[in-house]
Every structure is written in C-alpha cells, then in structure tokens.
Amino acid sequence: MKTTEVLVIGGGIGGLTIALKLVQRGVHVTLVEKLPGNNKVYKGELLQPKSMQIFDKLGMHDLVKNSSKQIDVLDLIELDRNNLVKDQSFMDYRVLPQPYNASYMIHHEELKKILRDIALTFEEFTYYPATSCTSIDGHIAQMKQGQETFEIQATYIIGAEGRASVTRKAMNQSVTNFTYNHHFLTVTFPRPENFEGGQIISTYNRFLGLFPLPDNQVRSVYLIPAGEYKKIKEKPIAYFHKLYTDLAPAIDGYVQELRDWKKIQLMIPIKYHADKYTDGHLAIIGDAAHAVHPMAGEGMNMAIQDADVLGELLADILDNKTSDISWYEKVRRPRVSFMLQMSHLSALAYSFPYQSVSWFRRKAFERIEEDPTLHYKQMLNVSGLGIWKESIQDRFIQGGLLPKRMGEVSLGVKEKHVFNDQQDYPWKRK
Ligand SMILES: Cc1cc2nc3c(=O)[nH]c(=O)nc-3n(C[C@H](O)[C@H](O)[C@H](O)COP(=O)(O)OP(=O)(O)OC[C@H]3O[C@@H](n4cnc5c(N)ncnc54)[C@H](O)[C@@H]3O)c2cc1C
Fold first, then answer.
1. b vs e for 316-332, b when ≥16 Cβ sit within 10 Å of the residue's Cβ?
2. What is the best residue among 115, 298, 300, 336 to mutate for testing ligand 1's pocket, by most ligand atoms within 8 Å of CB?
3. For 72-131, where are the E strands, in sequence order?
4. 55 touches ligand 1 (CB under 6 Å)
5. Ligand 1 site, residue 161, Cβ cutoff 6 A
6. What whole-number distance in Å separates Cα of residue 217 and Cα of residue 319?
7. Residue from 161, 177, 217 whose mutation best tests the ligand 1 pocket (most atoms within 8 A of CB)
8. pLDDT tens-digit profile of 282-338?
C-alpha cells in the first residue's frame, strides 16, 4: 500500500493549488486526477484579485499574469429594442488598493499546467493522472487506474473532485441543488485585437458576456431560457452568430469563425453549499463543498481561496503548531455564504425578462458607478480581498431614494475592510 501525508483527490484548480501550497511547506502530497490529459469542458477563467494575491504568496504571480489578459474595467451596456445603447456603466477594479487592483483572464488548462509544473519540481509531490478514487474507508482510499486497482493510506484526505465528490460522500454529506430559470451557451472564439475590456451587454430579455482571453481570444456566455438548448441547436449556426452580432457588432466577422455547434457548450448554473467542510481527517474544497452561479465569476476563485486557507492550516497542523482543523470552516464558510448570495443576487438581476427589471438594474448600476462608496464596496466584495456589506443607506441610494454620495473613500477606510493575515489564518494568533 502507498502512503502519504495528504492525499488530494482531483487535479482541478482547487486540488492543484492546495497541493502546491503544501509541498512548498515540505508536506508530502499525493494527488490523483481521473483525467489522463486536458479537460475539454469550459470552466472558470476569470481570476479575481484575491487569487492573484494568493498566487503571489506561492511565487507564481508574474507567471500567471504573463499568461493572462488583464481586465481593469468591466463595461455594463444596456441596449434598447433596436439594439442601440440606452445606458452604459462600468465596474472598475482600479478603485481597489494596489497592487491587487485588476482581474485576469487565463485559459483554465493553462493555469492548471502552471500549478502542476511548479508542484512537480518538488520531490514531496506525487502525481497520478488517469487515476480515479472510487471510495474512501477511514484513512484508506481505493484507486482505479485503467484495469489496475490500488490503495493509498493518508493522514489527511482532501476532496477536490468538483461537483461529484467521493470525499463528500464519505463524510455522509449530501447537497441540495438550487437551479435557475436560465442556462448559458458558452464558447471561446477569436476577437478583434482592440477588444480590450470585459463587456456585459443586455437588453430587457437578453444577456451576453464577453471576456477577452490572451491570444486574441474571447470567452463568451449567452443566456438562454432553461430547456431551450436542444431547440436552439437545431437551427443553422448563422442563427447563433446573429444572436451575438445583434448585441455586439464589434465581434462581427469573428464569431463566424465558429462553423458548427460542436464547440458551443451548455452551462447549467446551480447553487449548493455543503453543511460541513470537514470530518476528522477528511475535508472538502472548491466545487466539492459549494457551487456558485457563474454571473460574478467566482467559482474557480472560491476553490483557490479554500485551498489557501486549508493548505496553510494543514501545514501548521502537521507542523504541530495547531491541532484544530475546524478553523478552515470557521474562516471560509461565512465568506463562501456571502459570495453565494452575492452571485445569486447578480443572477436574479438578469433572470427576469421584464422592462421594469431592466430599468431597476440600469438605475442600480448607474448609482454604483457614481457613488464612490458603493463602487468600492461592489469591487471589494467581488475581488475576494475583503467584505464590506451594503447598509440600508446604500440600498436606498441604489434605489434612488437617497442622493448619492460624492466623497471619495480614503485609502485608510478602504484598507480597513481588506482581510489581513490574522483574518485569513486566525489560528496563528493563538
Ligand atoms: C461546466 C462548467 C462550466 C463552468 N464555467 C464557469 C465559468 O464560466 N466561470 C466561473 O467562474 N466558473 C465556472 N465554473 C465553475 C468553476 O470552473 C469551478 O468552480 C472551479 O473549476 C472549481 O474548481 P475545483 O478544483 O473545485 O473543481 P473542478 O475544476 O471541477 O476539478 C475537479 C477535478 O477532479 C477530478 N475528479 C473528479 N472526480 C474524481 C475522482 N473520483 N478521482 C480523481 N479525480 C476526480 C476532475 O476530473 C477534475 O479535474 C464552471 C463549472 C463547470 C462544471
């Protein structure tokens, strides 16, 4: 039987981040990944500022930055019935304190490769691709690699397997999916070189998100009513092109590079939150523990943040600096709950195809852009760097019931709401 200090099940972004974090602290990690190579399914590609801070601590900030497309500003464009611009507002990452005041788009598989390549330089890291964990019994996990089966015994087992988690099952945890009235078509295709910022383009009943990737590519998400995918796919591909070019003329001549429906995937948003993240020597991170609506671009970032906190904690536990694994959940659960709710509300803002909803959305975005406090709160909460909840006063300002504030937020006030190391790793204070 093979033995290891920490077994990580799942080599997605969450599993690879925690593995790298642990091997850098001298912990012996074995990671098993069921896929033999690249995953063909589109997944999260937007890195929020907190993820960049975590990658900085892991010594890979510049590597990630140089493989990404930096996004400073996200334009929110609302069109009228004739697809003419009715309103335009923006969300600006540059209001955040430096140096983590931008987001980055990176190909998902490229980010996995960066993490894996660095982890493989450590002799403490053992990697089994094309290996599936089939069950866990106590400290022993059963593996299947082709026709072969074998066992791995571990002091700690981390479930980073995504939505269908063997570890969550071993913890006797089930999750209840919340589903939405809409799905998304998602695909990456070439973009004009000067298509720089992120764009969310909507009418009262349509939604298109465009997020530039490196190599003059752009990732897109287009909202469709739940259950319509089959019907839409029966139409000629030109129908799909027109859905996009009606809303974003700038990509005319580029989206047509998609010549059939094969590359266009269906993305079904769901939301769930496991009741427990740990059970003795077992713990779950990322999508194994929670799934979030993709509207705010948080899924992959939440997996990275889980990995950062749990990785730091496990390394300290194995170093006899603390013994309490429940710190992981104490730090992460409130932050995850907040993100789930924030993403859920963002999703609802685009879920109902009524003119009145579109009007409220436009007003709210306009106020967020124009009121520096609201703008900062919005960007901080999205960034993952901290949480500054909206007050009743904020809600009234957003709804136009109170006048907007004009004063800038001072750097001191901004930084007060950014998580510090003591909040990220509170057990270290003891
Ligand atoms: C179809 C889809 C599209 C998405 N698109 C977006 C998006 O546009 N924007 C966004 O923000 N988020 C998106 N997400 C969410 C985001 O990608 C995830 O939140 C993020 O990837 C979570 O990372 P993770 O490491 O927890 O899990 P995953 O990325 O799911 O990684 C889990 C890994 O574990 C492996 N695995 C599973 N079971 C086993 C097993 N038994 N043994 C060994 N290995 C196993 C899998 O092969 C996989 O590589 C999407 C998710 C999905 C499923």
1. bbbeeeeeebebbbebb
2. 300
3. 73-79, 85-92, 103-105, 125-128
4. no
5. yes
6. 44
7. 161
8. 999 999 999 999 999 999 999 999 999 999 999 999 999 999 999 999 999 999 999
